[in-house]
Amino acid sequence: MTTLASLNDVTVEYPGLKALDGVSLSVAPGDVLAIVGANGSGKTTLLNVLTGQRRPSSGSVTVRGEEVRFARPADALELGITLVPQEPLMATTLPAWENLLLGSRGLIDRAPNRQERDAARQRVRSILPHIDPDLHVGEMRKADRAVLGLGRAMYTEPKLLALDEPTAVLGEQGVELVDNATRQMRQDGGAVVLVSHRLKDIVRLATRVVVLVDGKLVLDRPIAEVSVEEIVDTLAAGRGVATEHDSRNADAGAVAELGAPVLEVTTDRSLSGLEIDGLTVRAGEIVGIIGMAGSGRSRLCKLVASVSGKPKGVTFLGEELPVTARDSRRRGIAYIPEDRLGEGIFPALSVAKNIELGDLVRRSLASLWRPSPSSSRISEVIERFGIKTPSHGVEVTALSGGNAQRVVVARELMNEPQLVVADEPTQGVDRTGRAAIHQLLRAYAKRGGAVLAVSSEFEELQELADRLYVIVDGRIVGEVPSDTPYSRLLALASGLPDSSQTLEQEIL
């Protein structure tokens, strides 16, 4: 069989860490190869080697039977190999159509002519019909930027498309987009390499699955010959870890006694863009917000965290909500943002400094001259939250996406706030890490904390939350128990409450 690309005994080493350990695999035309593994297992590193982002420490890469040595990612692009990272990098001050062309043109190419500009605008309209192609990317929602990133990759007409967590941001609506892209790639004789923690997506999209454990390839099978249970068992056996089910059992019987309302939200659409009447979060409970991308769920989180919007009508501990994010943090409101790269971490700083900033922002500017937390304190936080890092001083961007997310969660929970606003708290985190974060949030609620949580995966909120509110077009359309059937939640979130029974029957 013809091989598009291969990794041959590839090892990648970082100081104190072996990210890949003698990995060999091949990708053939028509393959949709899923790479599965825990955070830090080497999945993203594998994609980076395959797409010229990272050179292997040893071993080789072959493309169409010939060994290649990528000096830069552009070399891989010239061979038809394109990467869509988990959080695509965009030129935020440029319009959407111009961002679409980035990656298909070199820095010294001539400016696009009118025909090329018109074609790019038309492509943007086809993939994002609700977006003006001349809108600056910095003004777009994260989910729309993710769609644009996938569209930009397909615009280059790749032979091998590498996708790193393509549905993590897009959630339920993103699977169809990725499915269409993989179908097109296969029809054109290309292949897809897909990294995802959403096992149901893998079952639907992939033709073959590879499992990595601590940088080693431990399973490589056609998807038709392996079950989800076998994949999970392979991951668990390789790392000796508990599953989400185990973590829930560990919390069995740990029901918090609910206290007074910590957060109460009643809004005016003209002021906040949201129409909410009487949303309440009490001490000791986790409340989930169910909604599709663009429904207003992240806007609600930013309003409550005083990041954006006018908080008139929102009360925290019975008092008017602070108007600035800094004041909200000092009052005891922690915020885990959806956009980890843009809002959650400080890319140029170390893991330790990113954690330390959790103390600094809660104090006055005079705290900048206070002694930094001790190394033992940082080590305690890193261990408590299961952050896998070679050292305290490594830049946070050197971590896997899931471990970087743990840094954000650690920073927000370490000082026991009174309310945690968690927008996609487990985005890009593996099954085991997700269970750990859920356990931390449940334990926090048991101690009397209050949590307002958003997730693109409805099942996650069903597992985590005590109660659910459904939001559609910026309006809360109902409150439902967490054990509401998934199909019913999907119908409500789609704005079809009257057709939910029919929709449920069609899904089942």
Characterise the protein shown here.
With 508 residues, the chain is of the alpha/beta class. The chain folds into 2 domains: 5-241, P-loop containing nucleotide triphosphate hydrolases (Rossmann fold, 3-Layer(aba) Sandwich), CATH 3.40.50; 247-507, Rossmann fold, CATH 3.40.50.300. The protein has helices at 43-50, 73-78, 96-101, 114-127, 142-155, 174-187, 199-205, 228-239, 244-250, 269-272, 297-304, 325-331, 340-344, 351-360, 375-384, 401-413, 431-446, 458-464, 486-493, 500-507; strands spanning 5-14, 17-27, 32-37, 58-63, 66-68, 81-84, 160-164, 191-195, 208-213, 216-222, 261-266, 277-282, 286-290, 314-316, 319-320, 333-336, 419-423, 450-454, 467-472, 475-481. The strands form 4 sheets. A 6-stranded mixed β-sheet has the order 6-7-8-3-9-10, sandwiched between helices. A 6-stranded mixed β-sheet has the order 16-17-18-13-19-20, with helices on both faces. Strand 4 and strand 5 (66-68) form a beta hairpin. Helix 9 runs parallel beside helix 17. The protein is globular. The two termini are 39 Å apart. 46% of the residues are buried. Mean pLDDT is 83; it is low at 239-250, 364-371 and 497-508.
Give the topology:
Elements: E1 5-14, E2 17-27, E3 32-37, H1 43-50, E4 58-63, E5 66-68, H2 73-78, E6 81-84, H3 96-101, H4 114-127, H5 142-155, E7 160-164, H6 174-187, E8 191-195, H7 199-205, E9 208-213, E10 216-222, H8 228-239, H9 244-250, E11 261-266, H10 269-272, E12 277-282, E13 286-290, H11 297-304, E14 314-316, E15 319-320, H12 325-331, E16 333-336, H13 340-344, H14 351-360, H15 375-384, H16 401-413, E17 419-423, H17 431-446, E18 450-454, H18 458-464, E19 467-472, E20 475-481, H19 486-493, H20 500-507
Parallel strand pairs: 3-8, 3-9, 6-7, 7-8, 13-18, 13-19, 16-17, 17-18
Antiparallel strand pairs: 1-2, 1-4, 4-5, 9-10, 11-12, 11-14, 14-15, 19-20
